[in-house]
């Protein structure tokens, strides 16, 4: 990882701040707990090297409360990802809407897996200032809704596709088209992503799509089979702070709240 201090003060204080620096900051904050859920020390290292008004960001993202949403979600996807790579050491990984996530270091610290991180060019430009490319690690600056970039990914062998915090920003038509392109390009693999309940999506203007459950996605693309769908509250016992653990316990007891954020694993 690069060691020079990088200036992010010009990053716009809008939705980009939340999706890029907000989630990075929450993972970094959570990593400093005595018994973290995710323990992303790579995120902590990155935050320590970025020149930005994190005091202002802290007031906005409220890490004491929101760290667990990010950590529980990422931990589940990481656990599934590790299991897939253990079963398929010859796999390729495709991380869509990667933002400033350090997943390639968390799951493949030695750089042995062909790994492709994809995000829009301006995000990849920021990302390159934090994480260097390696022999088997590449970044692609493109919108996932565009044509062309997928042809840069080798199609042979199994693939692990991760789309954390991404699909809810696309329309149903864009999601369906993206999923068809992926399953047409790759012969087999797994797709991991998180989804919000329809009522939760309606509360946030910039969000557009949500599955009611895995069957919605199977109807959208018959090649995909829902293997698991796990609400983040299912792992509430991992939360090390009692009062927040109790909140997640109450959420888990209410079906609508339990379904507010769900991690999905599909095979194809």
Task: Report on this structure.
The chain is of the alpha/beta class and 268 residues long. It contains 11 helices and 9 strands. It has helices at 15-31, 41-49, 54-61, 63-87, 103-107, 121-127, 172-185, 198-202, 214-220, 242-253, 255-258, and strands at 6-7, 50-51, 92-96, 115-119, 137-141, 159-163, 189-196, 225-231, 261-267. The strands form 2 sheets. The protein has a 7-stranded mixed β-sheet with strand order 5-4-3-6-7-9-8, sandwiched between helices. A two-stranded parallel sheet has the order 1-2. Helix 1 packs across helix 2 (41-49), helix 1 packs across helix 3 (54-61) and helix 1 (15-31) crosses helix 4 (63-87). The longest helix is centred in the first third of the chain and has 25 residues, at 63-87. It is globular and about 45 Å long.
End-to-end separation in angstroms reads 34 Å
Q: Kindly state the mean pLDDT as a whole number?
A: 95
Q: How do the SSEs run, as a string of H and E?
A: EHHEHHEHEHEEHEHHEHHE
User: How much of the polypeptide forms β-strand, as a percent range?
Assistant: 15-25%
């Amino acid at each position: 990882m690069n060691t020079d201090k990088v200036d992010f003060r010009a990053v716009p204080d809008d939705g980009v701040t939340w999706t890029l620096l907000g989630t990075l900051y929450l993972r970094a904050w959570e990593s400093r707990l005595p018994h973290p859920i995710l323990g992303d020390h790579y995120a902590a290292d990155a935050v320590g090297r970025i020149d930005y008004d994190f005091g202002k960001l802290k007031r906005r993202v409220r890490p004491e409360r929101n760290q667990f949403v990010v950590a529980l979600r990422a931990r589940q996807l990481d656990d599934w990802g590790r299991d897939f790579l253990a079963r398929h050491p010859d796999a390729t990984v495709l991380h869509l809407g990667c933002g400033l996530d350090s997943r390639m270091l968390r799951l493949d610290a030695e750089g042995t897996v062909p790994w492709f991180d994809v995000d829009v060019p301006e995000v990849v430009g920021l990302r390159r200032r934090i994480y260097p490319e390696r022999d088997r690690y590449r970044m692609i600056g493109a919108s996932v809704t565009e044509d062309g970039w997928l042809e840069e990914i080798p199609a042979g062998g199994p693939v692990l596709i991760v789309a954390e915090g991404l699909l809810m920003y696309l329309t149903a038509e864009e999601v369906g088209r993206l999923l068809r392109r992926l399953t047409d390009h790759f012969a087999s693999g797994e797709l991991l992503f998180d989804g919000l309940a329809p009522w939760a999506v309606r509360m946030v203007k910039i969000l557009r799509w949500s599955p009611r459950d895995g069957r919605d996605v199977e109807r959208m693309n018959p090649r995909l089979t829902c293997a698991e769908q796990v609400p983040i509250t299912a792992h509430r016992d991992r939360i090390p702070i009692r009062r927040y653990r109790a909140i997640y316990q109450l959420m888990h007891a209410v079906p609508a709240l339990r379904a507010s954020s769900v991690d999905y694993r599909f095979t194809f």
